[in-house]
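So, can you check these tokens?
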Amino acid sequence: MIRSRLVSFLSSSVRIANRVNQNPISVSQQFSSSKFLQLNGAISSSGPAVGSVRAYSSLLALNDLRDNPGARKQKTRKGRGIGSGKGKTAGRGHKGQKARGTMKFGFEGGQTPLRRRLPKRGFKNPFSFTFQPVSLGKIAKFINAGKIDSSELITMKTLKDCGAIGKQIKDGVRLMGRGADAIQWPIYLEVSRVTVRAKAAVEGAGGSVRRVYYNKLGLRALLKPEWFEKKGRLLPKAARPPPKQSDKVDSIGRLPAPRKPIPFASEKVHEPLAA
């Protein structure tokens, strides 16, 4: 396409030169009265043709764009005759297991496959839990910055909204005792797990820590209640903990996220009646 346009452009320049040599006065008058401008041998393509010559502003056009040779490789068509080179057996050869069908993934012809030659190492516990840790020092830092209100109940949603913990909370939050000296006022928290040091520090300052249970759906309803509103669903009810976890939690989680703590039931000591 580019070659044809070069030929037409050169032929047009030769024709114009011949006309100028034959009748220079008439051709000059024709070009002076014309509205087309010719600079360095290029004539605007938007205007009409001068005489029988077409004018082009460029040798390239959108319909001339092509990929480089070999950039797009055609798909091999198998079984379409011997002339294609992939006919008859279609590159599979004669007979044999590979010519007739396929084997399962990892099959090595009958010898012990690689997945069985390598030894096993360790195991993955399907009943394990992954809790995201948060320290008391970090909570105290956010309280001093005004991002957490210490007068209200601090839940896992509160910690997530203020940025004290990440957004990817898999099974819950574990309260750690690092920076326990920064807690000098009573705070009330509801988390999944708590260490002995953290619990002693919070209770020593006059606060309380309650271990609550949320299953996967309940934890989503606690952290992202807007997801259920967007889907047009109701918040699920809080689930009870399984028997093996009943001794590791203090109560069932509440939905939606609570703002007031639940006081622990004080144990009453019954004194024997005096005779």
Q: What stands out?
A: The two ends are 120 Å apart (CA to CA). Residues 105 and 113 are 10 Å apart (CA to CA).
